[in-house]
C-alpha cells in the first residue's frame, strides 16, 4: 500500500511538471537557451521553425512567470532584450539532454524499421 502512495505522489509530480512544460514550444525554447545560453527574441524565432511572434511572446512570459527564464532589457539603441535560463531553469539541463538522446535514438529505431519494411 505504501508503494502505491509513493507512486501516486510521483505521478502527481510528473503532472505538475507537465503542466509547466507542456505544449508544442516550451521544451524547444528551453532547449535553445540550454544549448546557446543567451538568446534574443529573433534568435529564438530562428531556432523554432513555425512559431509566431505572438506565441513565442506568450510562451516566454509563462516560462518567466514559472521562474525558468529571465528576461533582461539592455539600455541600448535600439533596446535589446536577452533571454536566459535562470539558475532554477538550468536544473532542466539533464532532462533536455536526456530528451535529445532519446529523440536521436528513437529516430534511428523508426528509420531502421522503415528500411526493413521497404
Brief descriptors of the model:
118 residues, globular, 64% helix, 3-stranded antiparallel sheet, 5 helices, mainly alpha
In short:
The protein is mainly alpha-helical.
Which helices and strands appear, and what pairs or packs with what?
Blueprint: H1 2-21, H2 26-36, E1 39-40, H3 41-47, H4 53-65, E2 69-74, E3 80-85, H5 93-117
Antiparallel strand pairs: 1-3, 2-3
Query: What is the chains' assembly state?
Result: single chain
SS elements, strand count: 3
Nearest-integer average pLDDT: 91
Uncertain residue ranges: none
State the distance separating the first and last CA atoms.
49 Å
Q: Give the helix level as a range of percent.
A: 55-70%
Spatial order of the strands in the main sheet? Answer: 1-3-2
Tell the overall outline: globular
Sheet having the most strands:
3 strands, antiparallel
Main structural class: mainly alpha
Determine the number of helices (DSSP H or I, runs of at least 4 residues): 5
Topology as a string of helices (H) and strands (E): HHEHHEEH
| Proportion of strand residues | 5-15%
Q: Rounded to an integer, what's the Rg over CA atoms?
A: 18 Å
Amino acid at each position: 500500500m505504501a508503494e502505491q502512495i509513493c507512486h501516486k505522489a510521483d505521478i502527481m509530480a510528473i503532472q505538475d511538471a507537465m503542466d509547466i512544460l507542456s505544449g508544442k514550444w516550451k521544451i524547444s525554447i528551453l532547449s535553445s537557451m540550454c544549448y546557446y545560453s543567451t538568446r534574443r527574441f529573433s534568435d529564438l524565432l530562428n531556432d523554432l521553425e513555425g512559431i509566431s511572434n505572438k506565441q513565442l511572446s506568450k510562451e516566454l512570459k509563462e516560462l518567466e512567470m514559472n521562474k525558468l527564464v529571465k528576461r533582461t532589457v539592455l539600455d541600448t539603441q535600439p533596446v535589446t532584450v536577452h533571454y536566459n535560463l535562470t539558475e532554477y531553469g538550468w536544473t532542466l539541463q539533464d532532462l533536455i539532454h536526456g530528451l535529445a538522446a532519446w529523440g536521436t535514438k528513437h529516430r534511428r529505431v523508426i528509420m531502421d524499421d522503415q528500411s526493413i519494411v521497404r
